[in-house]
Write a structure and sequence with these properties.
The protein contains 14 helices and eleven strands. It is an alpha/beta fold. A seven-stranded mixed sheet has the order 1-2-9-6-5-3-4, sandwiched between helices. Strands 7-8 form a two-stranded antiparallel sheet. Strands 10-11 form a two-stranded antiparallel ribbon. Strand 3, helix 2 and strand 4 form a beta-alpha-beta unit. It is globular, with a radius of gyration of 20 Å. The protein starts with a strand and ends in a 5-residue tail after the last helix. Bound molecules: nicotinamide-adenine-dinucleotide (NAD) and zinc ion (ZN).
Length: about 350
Amino acid sequence: MATVRVSLGNRGYDIAIDEPGGIGPFVAARVPSRRAYMIADYNVAARAERWQDELNEAGITSRLTTIPPGEASKSLAQLGILYERLAQAHVDRQTAIIAVGGGVVGDLAGFAAATHNRGIPLLIAPTTLLAMVDSSVGGKVGINLPEGKNLVGAFHQPAGVWIATDSLATLPDREYRSGLAEVVKYGVGLDGEFFDWLQAHSEDVTAKSPAALARVIARCCTLKARVVEQDEYETTGVRAVLNLGHTFAHAFETVAGYGTWTHGEAVAAGQVCAGRLAARRGLLPEADLQKVIHLLKAWNLPVAPPEPANVDAWLDAMKRDKKSSGGRIRLVLPTRIGSAGLFDDVSEAEIRGVLDGRAQ
Ligand SMILES: NC(=O)c1ccc[n+]([C@@H]2O[C@H](COP(=O)([O-])OP(=O)(O)OC[C@H]3O[C@@H](n4cnc5c(N)ncnc54)[C@H](O)[C@@H]3O)[C@@H](O)[C@H]2O)c1
Ligand SMILES: [Zn+2]
């Protein structure tokens, strides 16, 4: 068990990992009223109901609403449905939204919390590995448009994050491995020692050993917290490091349609593209690239762009990515394992070179 603090002045909060006290007291200490509105997807509804009972014991009454699982729910249509339900339930500014689920629920319910009544308190109880190590921390919430991922969103820090690692027991293997792609990202972009540890303990991680899980989640949350503390609104470039592999990944996801690959699978392949581009520039030693590929493969993650290749469409999507400016693609590239930087001088030819499978 561990608690990671995200220090953001009066927007600071705790991430509780397997804290013995239970979700009831955790929430009760962090919300202004004794009312909460829980949002979960169907797949975690049973878990959400158990947490409702625990909240009840701590004196918090809650309603639960469920949404269909999957990336397609991060939509304007689903957001509209949620707004109506919140209004019908008379959710006021004192009522907290509790998001129970993966990144989809966190991002969607979080955006509803950021905007309903001009913003109400949000607690997140992530149930996927990806959400535990990444999406629940840092306050980014939002939805997708058909034109691109996360195009509508806000910064809305939660009042707390409640992680119970035993939720991962029911998570499908493919989803678990997808979360590991983000875990690799932290090692490659920010912490070489952590990467080495992952390499040495990859089997424990595959087996979801409780000790390994707790360590991985606490380390990733700490790394993300330190980055977010330095660059809460992604203005200085520090936070951009967390986008390692993501410009490629978003292009793969946008072109294939959300749901073909999981986000994590796209991030795995995207990291390899970024790594290969960096290696070809002489930024990253080839041996380091091979280490990254090796670890991703050990966790059965894709290490090349999807097939068939659709290079023109991917490039187009990358230019439209909201991190690009004036059509110029900005990329986070690893400079060694444990460090990465933001580059805005990458040519189209270099990008084509790593996107086109035949050239590899
Ligand atoms: N806000 C951020 O900073 C941020 C960061 C990274 C990713 N994201 C977003 O997160 C989303 C991906 O999140 P995700 O990978 O968690 O996907 P997800 O929310 O779609 O969850 C994956 C699947 O697992 C199911 N599930 C969740 N928990 C379960 C459990 N304990 N047992 C059984 N099934 C369970 C869900 O119902 C779903 O079918 C993407 O939309 C991505 O853009 C956001
Ligand atoms: Zn991601």
